[in-house]
Specification:
Length: 122
């Protein structure tokens, strides 16, 4: 179940009333985002839902014109969160126009980041 960031009543009710096999925490690299993600991670632990790992979304942008990689929202926040909380870091999802276009069209994507994350969950 994809939920917005936070630890409000909806999150808590779902975690307490639905049998969950685990939670994947998704964050972006910024400090403020990882603070919210940490609260969510802590909440799942308190209600005994296993945290399967952390995914960092919008990790970087590879400029097709120059070939340069930019860390628009900072670098490594998700990985630091995973390390500090002793959970697996499952991978990074780039900020990619092709990924956005596929999602908007409801089409499958060939984004290798998703394969990496899926493999880390095995």
């Amino acid at each position: 179940i994809d939920m917005p960031p936070g630890t409000g009543d909806i999150h808590l009710t779902l975690a307490q009333s639905t049998p969950l096999d685990g939670a994947i925490i998704v964050t972006t690299p910024q400090d403020v985002a990882t603070l919210d993600a940490r609260k969510c991670l802590d909440m799942f632990r308190k209600v005994h839902v296993p945290v399967l790992g952390v995914v960092e979304n919008m990790s970087y942008f590879d400029d097709p014109a120059s070939g340069n990689r930019s860390y628009i929202f900072g670098e490594g926040g998700g990985k630091r969160l995973a390390e500090e909380c002793s959970v697996s870091f499952l991978g990074e999802v780039p900020l990619a126009p092709s990924l956005r276009a596929a999602m908007d069209a409801g089409a499958p994507t060939d984004q290798p980041a998703y394969r990496t994350i899926a493999a880390a969950l095995r």
